[in-house]
Amino acid sequence: MRLQGLTQLIYGDRRPKQFCPLISKRTLLAEARQRAERSISTEKILYSVMQCHRDYYLSELWDLPNQLVEQPCNRGTAPAVLYSLLHVARLDPDAVVAILPCDHYYSRESVFTEALAEAFQIAKNRQESVVLLGAQPTVAEVDYGWIELGRCIDRHPHTYQVLGFHEKPPLPLAQQLFRRGCLWNTFVMVGHIDAFLALAQEAVPDLLQGLRNIPISPKTDEEKRIVEWLYDRTATADFSLQVLSLVERQLLT
What we know:
Elements: H1 4-11, H2 28-39, E1 47-50, H3 54-61, E2 68-71, H4 77-91, E3 96-99, H5 109-125, E4 130-135, E5 145-153, E6 156-167, H6 171-179, E7 183-192, H7 193-203, H8 205-212, H9 221-232, H10 239-242, E8 251-252
Parallel strand pairs: 1-2, 4-8
Antiparallel strand pairs: 3-7, 4-7, 5-6, 5-7
């Protein structure tokens, strides 16, 4: 959102920043794909995309037609995440899943890869919990989400229970959070598929049930029309605000 004016100036359209080569010659989506493939087998990676962005993502993901979870329209991050998780559950009901945004840039990719590997290990050991990767803040940023830290988890010296969330706080609160050692929320999450779906069942049961009614991987034109009809009637919801913030006690960071 904050880069939309720049991307429109450069490309002449309102394409999202993940489809732009802002830092290097590669788009952020291409960087995200490479990042994911360092930790996860290529054939096990799904990409949550929207139909209206097809002209942008097909050139990046042309070789993965069966690994695209396509949403007919934008209903926010909660339906996007949960619809993708239901795809994973159908493919592998015992999967440990990582959710990776595709609009991030990391100056030290090796540090991220190590942190992701540690999160996978914690999630395997504590299958009832979802692990969020927090980032050490450099400023009291008001445009990011923040994570408050609770008690340290035994046997995991750098892992804490989540005490609370603050999404895009006003500057005075952001300054307090910065001084108290809180973390930026990267929206990178790792957990057993059952743990993710349990969070959704507790926080947004109606949304989850509605998404369960939508066909997975529609093949025929009739199935695609059903998906479009049902998804169009899905409530808009934000995963951070309407899921994570309601189930803090089951989250680690």
